[in-house]
Amino acid sequence: MGAYWPPHLPRSLPAMETTLAHNLRVTVARFGTQPGIGFFGREMTWRAFNDQVEAFAGWLRGVAGVQRGERVALYAQNSPNWLVAYYGTQRADCVAVPVSPMSRAGELRHVLADSGARVLVAAQDLLPVALEAAGGTLRVVAAHYAHYLPEVPVFTLPAWLTAPAMAESGVVPWAEVLACTARAPEPLAMADDLALLPYTSGSTGMPKGCEHAHRSFQHNIQGLLHWHQMSAATVFMGLPPMYHVSGLMHCVHSPVYTGGMVVPVPRWDRSLVPALVKHYGVTHFGVAPTAVIDMLANPAFDAADLASVKRITSGGATMPGALWQRLKAATGLEFVEAYGATETAATAILNPVDRPKPECAGIPFFNTHALVVDPVTLAPVQPGESGEILISGPQLFRGYWGKPRDTADAFAEIEGRRYYRSGDIGRVDEEGYFFMTDRLKRMINASGFKVWPAEVEAKLYEHPSVREACVIGAADAYRGETVKAVIALRDGAPADDAGIIAWARQQMAAYKVPRVIEFVESLPKSPVGKILWRELQDREKQKESDA
């Protein structure tokens, strides 16, 4: 099998011996007077940003009494506040615990307790949930976004974003933290010290903290710089959620490492985001496939707004082939898909920018080995055959925080090499490109035939009336389980269940054809744009139970 590799790139990269905090110091020394953050019309230089990072670190160590190696939780939308708190945590030699801003009190409470966080930085609009979860057991800092907005509005923004700082009993105001004059001790962290404790999505149980040293993210940071040809001239769209590893790579670590500018976007808005791209001349656009669907469905969408963009890329969810082609037709840009996990510091497999393939994860990243194996025997399968994707490389996490048994179950040793078991089903073609087809536990068993929902979904996206689709299993008296499609239609598009089923019979094997169609206004999604198939599957099971 002849594996393709971009001819202009080296096959491997040397290991970096520096830390995430060191990256910022280098950028300030190189590009201190250059704008590093653009927030709805107001810019901040890298030097000004670093001053706030130093103040935050000084407050952590000198006022809050947080010690080296202790954890600081971040619970906010993408914003300058998030960036200051994150790099302030790194500068203080502490460990960042990013938390989804969509987490409710019980979910946040679990992360805080499991990680042993000493401080919680919470956005002002999330304070009620934050205080309920914290329960008076740790310091809470209130971050308000308006602190960084221009005095004269440049964009029309929602009230929750423009709200002024509000006093709250027992909460430390953002301005008080930034006014701190104490200075944190000089950092002692090394490349192998713990830097990050991001939590898994919990799709297979309670969320688990993934132990990442500086080294694992540093490898992927320098790798993406070469892969995407990033530089201090790159303008990053800060759209992927910063708490998520994909967002960390594309709109936190990469801008700081290169010295380029990042444009944080707290929440997706299909009209506002293209306007920000145009205003700032964004060149690197990380965006989830579901956001692309919404953007292209906007009647006011103008591809000219994206004229500055050189790269559209993302990970976390597969871009359906039909949508890949629609995006290319509208913008002239090929979507460069990537594949990874919280456990792999985001990037493990990535499409070459000179030869990306639709509905494809790509090829193994620098210094990364990937296999497709039988999930039971762990024996490698032949090219084109489906199996579980295994990953080995310097970006792997050390293990799950406080869970040695789960850590042991997550790895397998094959021919002396330690691999992470992704739980994802995929295949590899004759050129060494990997294709993720589904989750290992998501298979539908219809009369003994194995149906992988993602394969059926990809085909449904080719129907001209389908905007979004999610395929789940439904009980069937004869087949045991049958295929059900939950579909959101494009605006004004005509369709009925009989018509879509008849169309599907012309597109796929009979056992894969959805026998049941449910139309909805929209599909539930995670903060990173993944369609929550498990939520729909659970609803279906509940309906079956009630019946």
Tell me what you see in this structure.
The protein has 547 residues and is of the alpha/beta class. The protein folds into 3 domains: 20-350, ANL, N-terminal domain (Rossmann fold, 3-Layer(aba) Sandwich), CATH 3.40.50.12780; 368-438, Luciferase, Domain 3 (Luciferase, domain 3, Roll); 443-546, GMP Synthetase, Chain A, domain 3, CATH 3.30.300. Helix content is 30%, strand content 22%. It has 16 helices and 26 strands. The strands form 7 sheets. It has a 7-stranded mixed sheet with strand order 11-10-12-13-14-15-16, sandwiched between helices. It has a 5-stranded parallel sheet with strand order 4-3-5-6-7, sandwiched between helices. α1 (20-31) crosses α3 (80-91) and α11 (289-297) crosses α12. The N and C termini lie far apart (52 Å).
What is the compact description of this entry?
By secondary structure, the chain is α/β, with parallel strands linked by helices. The protein contains 16 helices and 26 strands.
